[in-house]
Amino acid sequence: MNNPVNITVFRWAGEWGPFKVKIPCGECALTKDIIQDCIDSDLSGIDVELDMRDWLTEWWKPLPKGGWHAPIVLVNGRIISQGAALNRGVLTQSVIEEATGSSPVQGNHAYGKATCPHCVRAKGYLEQAGVDYQYHDVVKDPRSLYEMLARVKPIIGPKTPVTVPQIWLDGSYVGGADELKRILDLPEVEPNPERGQCSLSPAR
Questions:
Q1: Full-prediction pTM beyond 0.70?
Q2: Which of 168, 56, 154, 50 is nearest to 112 (CA)?
């Protein structure tokens, strides 16, 4: 069983000795609302624990990690935002990266985009071989993009550009369309001379 992803927020509230926060922080309230909405929508199905804490009462806890300006947001102990209302995309990506890193791939998956001819090829190969698979559009669905990046970067390395498609079969990483074709041992097809041409391609 995977551990839940922990989101900790230190909001502008609490007291320390003679000091007490008397004016509520609008950005802290907004950050909490953004997080809750993300948990209910963008992060649906991911086990997430939200821990709201008062910054002034526990100001020293986020300090070693570089957190000093509320609202301070941490995901599994790593600061992702402070001093301003939270960017929900940053939160969504951080949580998905943590959740994906602790769960192995299961089944057959192809990550791609509609405008990619190699993605179209890969889908054709899978269908030709009769393979049931889940297709994830990384342009239309940010969650799919974050999941793909979190899974493929540890395999290809942080400095290698990520292209599409990215394919897994039976939970094992395959790579792109050419690697998929070799694994499925499909017959050769007539090459399409227009494949991969774009406005930057040299004239022939």
A1: yes
A2: 168
